[in-house]
Amino acid sequence: MFQLKSSPLHGSVFALALTALVLLATLLLRPFLAPHFFLPFWLAVFCSAWLYGRPGGLVATALSSIALGFLLVELRATQPASNLSLAVGLLSFVAMSLMGAWLISGWLDSRNLLAATLASIADGVLATDRDERITFVNPVAEALTGWKGAEALGKPLAEVLRVIEEATRQPAASPVRAALRAGAPPLNSGQLLLIAKDQTEIAIEHSVAPLCDDSGSLRGAILVFRDISGRRQLEEQLNRAGRMDAVGRLASGVAGDFNNALTVITGYSDLLRGQMPASSPLRRFADEIQYAGERATRLTRQLLEFSRGQAAQPRVLDLNVLIAGMEPMLRRILGEAIDLIVLPGQTLGRVKVDASQIEQAILNLASNARDAMPNGGKLVIETANAEVDESTAAQAGVQPGGYILLAVSDTGCGMDAQTRARLFEPFFTTKEQGKGSGLGLSIVYGTVRQAGGYITVYSQVNCGTILEIYLPRNQEPLEAPAPRRGGAAKGSETILVVEDEEGVRKLISAVLQNGGYTVLEANNGSVALATYEKNAHKIDLVLSDVVMPQMTGLELGQRLAEKDPDLRMLYMSAYRDAAIGQSGQADKPFLSKPFAPDALLAKVREVLDG
Fold first, then answer.
1. DSSP characters over 545-596
2. 291 three-state secondary structure
3. Which of 46, 109, 155, 371 lies in the 20 to 30 Å Cα band around 354?
4. Rounded distance, CA 304 to CA 574, Å?
């Protein structure tokens, strides 16, 4: 498009050939050229300077001077001429040739520097004349539009830069027309969709400015545009992170009140079930209350884990044993219209994962499978040993070696490619509004990746879905479960219960009293201190909520420790990380709300015996 770049040798050869050609032409046409026979040599010098820059012009000047000297000597032999006039003519030619070569090469250097600068810009650059015809295209613009520079030159801008409005999908107005009409840049740059030559759609941001010469006359316009697809992805990630932060704040804000309510619901339903014989027709109502409370508890924990990124508590376990323990709950979730088939692998290896997180993942997958089979079907849960080679491991971003496969397959409606591509995105759901949060599968993905595994999905519309979870195989021995006491853990000690929520306080008192304990109650820290002053000699344990008005449970514990360093404290709250972990007292005995009555009695007994 601009000056031809070549080696000095090529320029010298070209200048020599061109000078020889001009010399031959001058000798043949001398009668017609005289006395202006030096003009063809100037032409040779200027052509060499134009094509090969300053070196080409200098070589052509030197060769042309020699050729002219030959001609001048011959001219003196045939026509009377003074030596001075011949010398002046030759020197004039040399001076004008050097000046011309210098000016031409300097102008070309400036032009090439401008072209190189525009070509090195990371944005697309298009220049047009006053009629909106392309006069310049840089390499980035070529790549974005799909048009080569030679093809685009002279074409209308609208043909090379096809843009549409993203919202309406309608053709957009020419980006440079307003600048040409006003003779000034538009106030704001715009964002449009560029339709490339191969019909690829690219989101671009552009700015336009008019091009004017030194006298201020409008010569055209220059358009700078860039691909903003990557920036939009980052903006979406930031927006998603902002939404997650909002969910985290919302979940943390309501977790305390919601879990207090769930503690009362699940606690009293458990007490009610304990008072009813299994044959009672009312037993199923209590079961449903407890089941609804469990579901609400899982949802709250799901939101907290996803938004706050709570740390996992992995332990070595056998997936077959875990799934076997979940079967009754899974069958209840799936209902009678769906057949649950469990195929445990033989001699299955062990995995080191957070049991509650894996249980939650299986429940999420089972719930999604149920929704995909509204008219019934089959859900198959299968485990097996598997080996992951280096190629597969590299693609999945994990380490090669032994894995445990957990496959969950259904005969439901399946998914198309677009849905599969977004399956694990937060807040993405194909369910109707109000029937899905879009968090379930993203939590499954996070759980599996946190454990060092990966997930594959196979699905076709109307052909069902298979999700395969690969978890690293672990060679450590199984961790023995904590020994369970026969029946509920009972006692006879005196316990001070400090809880600002009356419903939760009354429930805890009822559970502890049923367990044989003597219970003293306080609804805040100040009352708790006063109660302790009166009954310090007989209080064996203080069970306190962490988040309370006026005085937190931790502050209460510090005040009581000053009075009696050996006094046993048990804290409870809806979220451990905010209540205990961030306070630097993560080693304190802690009970997470909501809790079952048996769990409360067991924890109280553990702290008293500890």
1. ESS-SSS-HHHHHHHHHHH-TT-EEEEEES-HHHHTGGGT-TTS-EEESS--
2. helix
3. 371
4. 10
DSSP 445-495: HHHHHHTT-EEEEEE-TTS-EEEEEEEEEE-SPPPPPPPPPSSS-----EE
Task: Give yes or no for a contact between 402 and 349, defined as CB atoms under 8 angstroms apart.
Answer: yes
97 Cβ neighbours under 8 A, 6+ residues apart: 41, 42, 45, 57, 60, 61, 64, 65
**Measured distance CA(453)–CA(396) in Å, rounded:** 9
DSSP 270-281: HHHHHHS-TT-T
pLDDT in tens, 292-325: 777 777 667 666 665 554 555 788 999 999 999 8
Report which residue type is found at 567.
L
- pLDDT tens-digit series, residues 541-551: 999 999 888 89
Asked if the model's pLDDT at residue 494 lies above 90, the reply is yes
Decide if 362 contacts 486 (C-beta within 8 A).
no
CA distance 202 to 182: 28
- 311, 354 Cβ separation under 8 angstroms: no
**Tokens representing 554?**
């931790």
Distance, in Å, from the CA atom of 400 to the CA atom of 390, rounded to the nearest integer, reads 5
Q: Hunting for tokens 């203080």 — which residue is that? A: 542
| CB contact at 8 A, 285 and 276 | no
CB contact at 8 A, 136 and 129: no
Tokens at 207, concatenated: 């700015």
Question: Cα-atom radius of gyration of the chain, to the nearest Å?
Answer: 42
Q: What angle do CA 95, 99, 104 make, to 5 degrees?
A: 150
